[in-house]
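Design job #97: recover the sequence.
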């Protein structure tokens, strides 16, 4: 009898231990589905994986994300993937080994999928940050800006600076096109937004495209020719130099569609080295309101940029992680769910992911103070921009 009781006791204890283990796992996954209040902010660790440092914005993103996470009582660490997905994957695996409860990832390409699966297995929440993770929709959220609108604002910067509505086919303006990385879905939306503004002027002959001309990013052959692998400025500069002595040899370019500030500055550098453009640079677009580009706009070189308040994006992403970890309903002030015209921003290629969008703002010399007044720059930089 005693023996039977002892066996029953052992079984009972084992049963509790097993149920406890299960509870722990399911509270992890329930939290990731947004149901239970489990994570204690004071202990939980958030891994912050940013793609690169050769584009100024990401350093700012990394710092803002870390500060926000710490402010909310989390432990947090930022790693930069150096535009190399294998490197970033190692960093994310290491976050998971350290017990990360949430990952906020600005990925490099869809090779990130394997670590998203690892995170799923470990019960960690994954938030795609600024760039969608493609090839899987098995993660919690994507938070970004309205990337299509970023593109339309870039198109507007050019259309307004060239006064395209007044231009005619008798005296057409000339433009050449650049796009971002072909591995970054954002690049497609930026390009398409800009083209939706510029195409009507191209169709009526008031704007002529010099060099490769994809009407749509799905024209892969031509899009590849204007795309810039991993957003590397050296690639854009070399391509601009080649254009100036190639396709654009016999025309004067009035504008260059530049997909971000880092590439705009590289393209402007190439133009400045060409005698033809020394007095009058082509009109250029950009995005990110990077300090060097803001100075360039102030000095009359780059024409405009698109301000994406990444401090707000970082704040929103950490707030989202916090709400998911605590099983609270998601409620992010200033962000809207992708729907209607913006639905496609949420398309992973394997189904849609819940996507929150923030609003970008067009900036030219006329409203250069907008990002400054938003507190986007440290005092020493703000002083130079005033
Ligand atoms: C971001 C841009 C950035 C670019 C290059 C894009 O995914 O949305 O803000 O300029 O990557 O880093």
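Job complete. Output follows.
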């Amino acid at each position: 009898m005693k023996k039977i009781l002892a066996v029953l006791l052992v079984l009972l204890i084992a049963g509790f231990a097993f149920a406890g283990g299960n509870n722990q796992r399911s509270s992890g996954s329930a939290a990731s589905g947004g149901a239970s209040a489990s994570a204690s902010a004071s202990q939980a660790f958030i891994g912050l994986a940013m793609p690169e440092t050769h584009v100024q914005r990401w350093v700012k993103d990394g710092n803002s994300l870390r500060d926000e996470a710490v402010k909310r009582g989390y432990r947090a660490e930022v790693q930069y993937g150096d535009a190399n997905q294998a490197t970033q994957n190692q960093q994310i695996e290491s976050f998971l080994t350290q017990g990360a409860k949430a990952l906020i990832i600005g990925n490099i390409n869809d090779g990130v999928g394997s670590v998203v699966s690892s995170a799923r297995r470990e019960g960690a929440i994954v938030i795609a940050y600024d760039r969608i993770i493609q090839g899987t929709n098995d993660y919690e959220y994507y938070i970004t800006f309205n990337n299509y609108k970023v593109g339309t604002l870039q198109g507007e910067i050019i259309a307004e600076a060239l006064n395209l509505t007044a231009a005619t086919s008798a005296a057409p303006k000339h433009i050449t096109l650049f796009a971002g990385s072909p591995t970054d879905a954002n690049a497609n939306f930026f390009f398409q937004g800009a083209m939706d503004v510029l195409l009507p002027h191209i169709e009526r002959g008031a704007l002529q495209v010099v060099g490769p001309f994809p009407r749509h990013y799905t024209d892969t052959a031509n899009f590849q020719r204007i795309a810039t692998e991993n957003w590397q400025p050296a690639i854009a500069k070399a391509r601009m130099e080649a254009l100036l002595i190639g396709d654009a040899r016999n025309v004067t370019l009035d504008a260059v569609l530049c997909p971000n500030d880092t590439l705009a500055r590289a393209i402007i550098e190439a133009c400045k080295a060409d005698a033809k453009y020394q007095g009058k640079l082509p009109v250029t677009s950009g995005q990110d309101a990077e300090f060097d580009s803001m100075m360039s706009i102030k000095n009359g070189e780059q024409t405009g940029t698109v301000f994406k308040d990444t401090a707000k994006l970082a704040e929103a992403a950490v707030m989202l992680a916090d709400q998911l970890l605590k099983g609270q309903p998601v409620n992010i002030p200033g962000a809207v769910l992708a729907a209607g015209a913006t639905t496609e921003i949420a398309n992973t290629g394997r189904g849609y992911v819940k996507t929150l969008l923030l609003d970008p703002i067009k900036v030219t010399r006329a409203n250069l103070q907008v990002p400054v007044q938003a507190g986007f720059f440290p005092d020493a930089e703000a002083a130079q921009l005033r």
